[in-house]
Amino acid sequence: MTTLFLSADRNLDDWIAAWRETAPDRPILVHGQDDYDPARIDYALTWRPPSGVMQTLPNLKAIFNMGAGVDAVVADPDRPPVPIVRLVDNDLAVRMSEYVVLQVLSHFRQAPAYAAQQARREWTPHDQPSAPSARVGLMGYGVLAQHCAPILLALGFNVIGWSRSKKPSDITLYHGRDGLPEFLARTDILVCLLPMTEDTRGILNADLIAQLSTASPVGPVLINAGRGGLQKSDEILAALQSGALKGASLDVFETEPLPADSPLWDAPNLIITPHVAAVPDPAATVTSITSRMTAFERGDPVAGLVDPVRGY
Length: 312
Ligand code: NAP
Ligand code: GLV
Description:
Layout: E1 2-7, H1 13-22, E2 28-30, E3 41-47, E4 62-65, H2 71-74, E5 84-85, H3 90-108, H4 111-119, E6 135-139, H5 143-154, E7 158-163, E8 172-175, H6 176-185, E9 189-192, H7 206-211, E10 221-224, H8 233-242, E11 247-250, E12 270-272, H9 282-298
Helix pairs in contact: 1-9, 3-5
The structure holds NADP nicotinamide-adenine-dinucleotide phosphate (NAP) and glyoxylic acid.
NADP nicotinamide-adenine-dinucleotide phosphate (NAP) is lined by residues 67-69, 96, 140-145, 162-165, 193-197, 199-200, 225-227, 251-252, 275, 277-278, 312.
């Protein structure tokens, strides 16, 4: 079974090395580097795949994505109608939890304010609320958010979640558009880990920000590590400037890299990172993907199978 690496913008050197070491019995080719016969390709291994290539692979059996978010794959209307498998991997979940905990604590312990004071050589302590007084709302309660929740709970935060469907959970979980207002009204620090779909596009906007709780002295805060298309950046910027948002962390943007002239770079209390919340480790990820290929070939259940209608 031959796999074709397909990425418009990721440096694949580490991935190719990890693949050759971890799965020497599974041949790989790299689109744009290797000459190949399209009829020989069984699997596409994608990260923001260049459009139009997948439709040239007549014997494609499945698409395995090198990330959790499959919006760039689903967006190719000409891809063959084969199963899409997104990345579900413990290493990725650990990295996302690190990012989420770092951002929640940064805003909760007022790190941007102290950094600004340090730049001015100013010594001014601020009030320090207790963790149980702050409610963290996990927007999108999937694989990654469910990894974050127990860590935030262990730190003492109140943690609630919001998902598309109703499901059993250890935390209070709201679901669907009907459950959104109550979820937002009970959230001081909003962490968005939604996938980018037609339902979720632009959901992080002024109207949503206006519904967040203002009960905590450190909130409302917005953290987005989902996708840039989920947010209306100009409305988030305005909310930071007006104080409607006390702080924000954005890891993802509509245009990446974020243009140097974007006004977001100068927004108050905004922590910007360059889409690095959870960068998959090639060695861990290759093992996770090839074991899923084996399950697929045996006809066993495959974790991370995408529903193309839902889009995630
Ligand atoms: P997942 O397991 O598929 O979880 C997605 C969650 O979002 C589920 O709880 C789902 O609800 C919910 N959801 C989807 N559409 C919804 C809607 N319309 N209304 C309400 N809830 C909705 O995905 P994951 O593995 O946790 O990953 C989440 C996202 O993180 C990815 O799609 C990707 O965009 C992003 N990500 C970013 C980075 C980074 O470095 N910034 C790294 C990895 C992933 P149900 O539970 O009801 O299905
Ligand atoms: C990264 O953004 C991912 O979707 O895994």
